[in-house]
Amino acid sequence: MPTLALISKDPELSQKLVASLEGTDWSVEWLATEGLGDRELQHDVLVLDAAHPGANAWTPTQAMPVLLISEGEQADRLERFADDFVFRPVRRAALLVRLQRLHARSPLDDLRRPYSEAFASMAIGVVVLGPELEILTANPRSHEITGHREETIASQDIGYLLSADDLPRVRGALSQGQYPRAMDIQVLRRDGVSIVCSCSFAPLFGAKDHTVMSFEDVTLQRQTERELVKTMEFLGSLIDASVDAIISTDMEQRVRLFNASAARITGYHESDVVGSVTLEDLLGRATVELVTQRLLSTEHGGTGRLEPTKLDLVDIHGRRVPVQLSASLIYENGEPSAIVLIFADLRDRIRVEEHLAETQKKLAFTEKQGVLAELAGTAAHELNQPLTSMMAYAELLLRQSEPSSAAAKAARVLIREAERMAEIVRKIGKITRYETTSYVGHQKIFDLDRAADGSSEPGAKG
Length: 462
Fold this sequence. Notes:
It contains 15 helices and 17 strands. By secondary structure, the protein is of the alpha+beta class.
C-alpha cells in the first residue's frame, strides 16, 4: 500500500487529503510539527504544504518525490526541490494523477532533477544501467564518444556498446557485486570503429540494483603508451647490446643504469650495482672529482659534456682498468638531473698496440739486418779484387828477392796481412745479422765473428 507523508500545520488540509484518497490504496500520515526535522521518512511520496512556516528554508535530504500544495504564488520559490505541485483547492482527480506519477518514478528520476545540469556538463561519458544492464540514460559526452544519439542508445543492452570479448568480463564482475575501476574496454562506436575506453563502475546512490558506468576515450593515449613501451624496449635492447659500457647515475652519483658491457668490464652484476653503488666506488674519488670538474667546465667539449678521455676505473677485484671515457649531463626543465657515462675497455687495444709496436720493432731490425747483409756482400766483393792483386804482387816480390833480404821480409809481411785481410773479408761476406760487443769503456763495436756465425741465436746482443 503506497503511503504519503503530509507536512502541514493545517488540519483542514489533512482532512481534505484523507477524504480525497478514500477508497484508494493510498494512506496518509500527517506530520504537523516534526516533519521538517531530521526524522527519517519511509514514505512513497512527500506532500508539502507551501504555507508551512518553514517551507521556504527546507531542503529535502532524502531521494523521495515531493508534491507541493500551493496557493499559486509560492510555487516559483519552492520549485527548486518540488517534483510536482497542485493548487488549492485540491481536486481529487488531479491529486491522484500526480500521486500515481510520482509513485511510479524510478530512483533514477529522483536523482536526475538535482543533478541534471552536472550530469549533462560532465567531461566524461556517463551511462546509467538498469538491473538487467539495460541502458537507461546517457549524458551528452557519451553520445559524442560512442557516436550514438539518445534515441539510438536508450533501452539497449550494455552489449550494444561493449565488444564481445569484454562483455563477459563486465557482466561477471557486476553479477558478483564487484565494480571495476579504470578497466580498459573495447567500445563499439555507431560507425563500427572500435575504440579503447577506460571504464569505471559504481552502484547508483539510492538504487543499488542500478549501475553507473563512467568512461573516457583513451585510444590515442593507449596507442602512445604502446609506442612509448616499444621505444623504451628498443632503447633498452640497444643499450644492452652496446659494445661500450653505459652507466647512468642521478645527481647524487648513485648508479641507476648499468648495461651488460659495464658488467663485463667491471665484474659487477647489475643487481649488485643499481641503487647501491656510487660513481666513486667505480672510478675512485680522484677520478670522479676530475670528471665532475671537466663536466662543469667549457674546455673539454662544453659545459655538461666531456670529450673522450683516458682514465682508470676500479673493477670488483680492486684492479685498475684503463678505459676511454666520455660523459654528459642530462637536463630536465633546464636543471641537471642525471649523468651518463660511456666508456670503452682499453686493455685489448693496449695489448694490440704493444704487440704492433714490438712487431714494428722486429720488422725494422729485420730490415736493418737485410741492408747490412747486402752492404757486407757488396763490401766483400769490392775488397776481394784489390786484395787478390796485393797478394799476387807480394808473392812475386818474394820469389824475386833473396830469402834473407829486406825485400823478402817485407813481402812475407804483406802476404801474411793480406791473408788476414782475406779472412776478414770472408767473414764480412757471411754477415747475416747485426751483433755488437763491448769495447773500451761503454762503447759498442760490431761483433764480426758473431754476426757471421750462423749457429748463434738471431738478434742476440753483446
